[in-house]
């Protein structure tokens, strides 16, 4: 008797700033939806789950996200803890928005997301290198979404240091200067230079197969799906 082969695939697209749409077999998860005050409008989109790293307007616009045929309204995860929603396991890790234990900008939640055999981490607006305990909790991450724009988060050089701590298979930069963004942060080119890439190749989306993860680390820069300036 032959059994069907189940291929586990996770598809990642970038909506801009720190917002990713992560689609698995039966679940869509959205990270850090932003408000149009950052300089461009948030696109119409759906999700079963939303993660919010902290309560700043460029990361917590959960009200703009519609539900799916499976869930009338998204389940919002907005802080540290362990969660299991629709077969997705999420672990929220407390951290800080700055290098002074939150004295400047408060707290931040790192999310480790286990979806369809792929282990992802979204660092939110992380502002410091990881502690030994935090590093232990993100151990074994396949895909790392990391801020690189500096000023309010990790700089390009600091991001490279954190990548060296985590040692993920795939790195996706986020929270950098984009057309229309009115926040004073550095462009992704600064990060590209810091990691030693010779050229920028942007992808429309990233498809990750749980059984075919890259052997060598990859840096993937995604085109944002929404680049229309807010009116």
TrEMBL record:
Gene3D superfamilies xref list: Ribonuclease Z/Hydroxyacylglutathione hydrolase-like
InterPro entries xref list: RibonucZ/Hydroxyglut_hydro
Cross-referenced SUPFAM superfamilies: Metallo-hydrolase/oxidoreductase
Top-rank lineage group of the source organism: Bacteria
Pfam families: Lactamase_B_3
Protein name as catalogued: Lactamase
